[in-house]
Amino acid sequence: MLNDKTIGKYFNLLLLHVSERDVNKRSWVVVIPNKKFIRKFKDLLKDGKINENYSRYLSHKNKFPLVVLKEIIDKQNPREQKELYLFFMKNVLGFSSNSSKKIVKIPLIVTPDLLYLMGVLIGDGCVPNSRSTKGSKIYRLSIEKGNEYFIKEVWDKMFFRFFNVKGVISKRDRDNKPNPTWEWTTASKPIVTFFDIFFEISRGSKSHKIRIPELIRKMSPPERLPFIIGLMDTDWGHHGGTFGTGVSSKELRDDTVKTLKELNFSLNQYEGILNNKFPAYYARFNKQELKRFWNFINEEYMLKNPKRINFIKSLINK
User: Fold this and answer.
1) Is the pLDDT of residue 6 over 80?
2) What's the rounded Cα separation, in Å, for the pair 4 and 13?
3) Angle at 138 between CA 134 and CA 142, to 5 degrees
4) Which of 133, 192, 219, 275 has its CA 20 to 30 A from that of 38?
5) Residues with Cβ within 8 Å of residue 225, at least 6 apart in sequence
6) Count of alpha carbons within 13 Å of 300, Cβ hemisphere only?
7) Domains of the chain, each with CATH number or no CATH
8) Where are the alpha helices (DSSP H) in the chain?
9) What angle, 0 to 180 degrees and rounded to 10, lies between the N-to-C axes of helices 189-199 and 112-124?
């Protein structure tokens, strides 16, 4: 878990990021304050530490812009700023934007399951770089898989636990393919902003340049494991008669292999061409290493995708 000092830094980064990019007031990221937040704000007003001009935001549909909150805190005594960041962050009911009625949560601590979620998102997710017919940005998140159970019972429920959001799930038939896929989507500027800041998951195409985010690379190898498991539940499968992956990003392949090597597992690596035109970077376990890895994750952090679990079981039980 992150300590209070880290949470304070975390909130500071979020405020700074939003204040730099939120130039359109109509789509400002806002917090929904609780009673303690409002009481503290009124105390600061009473003590003359906040300009009276800011009081109008308390009655603005219970939405308080993050850019305004940053302005207020930055004007306080430097010794008090961190304490105020912590206090206000811990006393919000949720996040939203001026252009949305949806209220979401933003997690304050990085847990193994949150890291797993990030691995799944990088493995099979997408943050489209799209705009509305009026030209405004659409902050949408999506993930598509051919596994209905995984989308509904694993991803959607875990995402709700962290962000208080249930996605829209739709079945999609594929041309010339016998089996459909299921697409999960949601739209939220605070959530997309969160992923962009802390996990480097920005809008637009990412497959050829994505890597393990710096925040996770700085963690110890055992702490990185849930993220790797998220990747394996989505982007790994049958390769060369065993379990492996093939990706467009050499850095993602190398980061993953490095983490597994630090956990004392070796993988075979090679390169190839996908569809006769795109470079691809591969890694796979041999069967002996796969069995060792299976025993390891049974004790540490297990796969959640039944198809991956059953596939590995079929390999190691031969």
Assistant:
1) no
2) 14
3) 145
4) 192
5) 112, 259, 263, 297, 300, 301
6) 18
7) 4-97 (no CATH), 112-316 (3.10.28.10)
8) 4-21, 35-46, 66-74, 78-90, 112-124, 148-149, 156-163, 189-199, 214-217, 221-235, 250-262, 287-299, 306-316
9) 100
Cα separation, 119 vs 136, in Å, equals: 29
CA distance 306 to 283: 22
Match 């219970």 to its residue by tokens: 62
Q: Is the pLDDT of residue 2 over 50?
A: no
pLDDT single digits (tens) 38-66: 899 889 888 888 888 888 877 656 788 88
**∠ CA(32), CA(163), CA(136), 5° rounding?**
70
Whose tokens are 């190839």? That residue is 272
Question: What is the SS3 assignment for 52?
Answer: helix
How far apart (Å, rounded) are the C-alpha atoms in residues 238 and 285? Answer: 11
Q: pLDDT at residue 132 above 80? A: no
Convert the pLDDT of each residue in 85-128 to its tens digit: 888 888 888 888 877 778 898 887 788 999 999 999 998 888 77
Residue with tokens 């198809």: 307
Q: How many CB atoms lie within 10 A of CB 226?
A: 24
pLDDT at 22: 63
Angstrom CA distances, 67 to 29, 30, 31, stand at 8, 8, 10
Q: Token digits for 124?
A: 């099979």
Mention every residue, 6+ apart, whose C-beta is less than 8 A from residue 1: 109, 110, 111
